[in-house]
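[step 3/7] fold_predict: job queued, chain A
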Amino acid sequence: MKKIINKSELRNEAKAKRAALSSNFMLQAANQAAEIFLQNIPLEKVNVIAAYYAMNNELKILPLVEKLWAKNKQICLPSVIENNQPMIFRAWQRGDELIDGAHNIKVPDENAPILVPDIIIMPLVAFDKKGNRLGYGKGYYDRTIAQMDKKPLLVGYAYSVQEVEKIEHESHDVPLDYLVSEKEVRKF
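[step 4/7] structure written:
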């Protein structure tokens, strides 16, 4: 892993690594990561889990969501209501049709209840060994978490190839509590 300081360059390199993965590997990784999550992330006192709808070769989360629904966990998805503002989380139940939201991300429709997650599973562009994360650069998760009354458990969900040596941490960046990949779980 080489050290890259520029976040834009780092983002591009991490996206390229992710895009180079085969579809067969991505499917296997999604199933492996789901099992690792369920074996290692504390869920006993958890009712509501924020997931994401995978896009741009992100680690597919549906295998995990299916298992969480089977455990009677409530799942919600982030929804951008206004650019550069905190997101809200709307309930997503098995069989619900999703619509195109901001940035062409699939979200529940506006009639879905708003929930407050106990855990937020976050898609990542890159992560480092200290739990710093790199997203798409819009700051939605950081803004959202900063305004929450109670900080939820933050779990990054990514392929192991997305690890980089170091991500420069800025004052507004919220680090991860855990990272789950197809290979392992890390607690920070």
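[step 5/7] annotate
Residues 7-187 form a domain with the Rossmann fold fold (CATH 3.40.50.10420).
The mean pLDDT is 92.
exit 0
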